[in-house]
Write a structure and sequence with these properties.
Elements (H helix, E strand, L loop, with lengths): L26 E5 L19 E3 L2 H4 L6 E3 L9 H9 L4 E5 H8 L5
Antiparallel strand pairs: 1-4, 2-3
Bound molecules: iron/sulfur cluster (2 copies).
One iron/sulfur cluster binds next to loops.
């Protein structure tokens, strides 16, 4: 047997459907664009990386607010807590059923 260290050990098989939620979350994160400064403090805290700046064309302002890709959000509330504690309290957690009824969206 070789004493040489193997730096290229096997890695796990990747999922065929990466980024898909297993079940519908109870809560959905919704950014209040009027309160959001676009500081992006919340962005690195999201465990599924589903917070992004709003498309520049929508408002044509230098620093746009952020938005949540609702079909990826798992409702963990971290972003809302971060925003409330560190910045502007711009993220509301809304019961998913209410969110779907209000916006006519199926969050998957
Ligand atoms: S931390 Fe709050 S204010 Fe800053 S980008 Fe996120 S939602 Fe907007
Ligand atoms: S609730 Fe959790 S998963 Fe959803 S956007 Fe906020 S940090 Fe990301």
């Amino acid at each position: 047997m070789s004493n040489q260290y193997d730096h290229f050990k096997t890695v796990p098989e990747t999922s065929e459907e990466p980024g898909k939620k297993k079940k519908k979350p109870k809560l959905m994160a919704v950014v209040d664009e009027d309160n959001c400064t676009g500081c992006q403090v919340c962005v690195p805290f999201c465990p599924v990386d589903c917070i992004e700046p709003v498309n520049y064309e929508k408002y044509e302002i230098p620093i746009p607010p952020v938005q949540v890709r609702f079909n990826e959000c798992i409702g963990c509330q971290i972003c809302a807590k971060v925003c409330t504690k560190l910045t502007w309290d711009a993220i509301r957690m809304i019961p998913t059923k209410e969110f779907e009824d209000e916006y006519g969206i199926d969050v998957g």
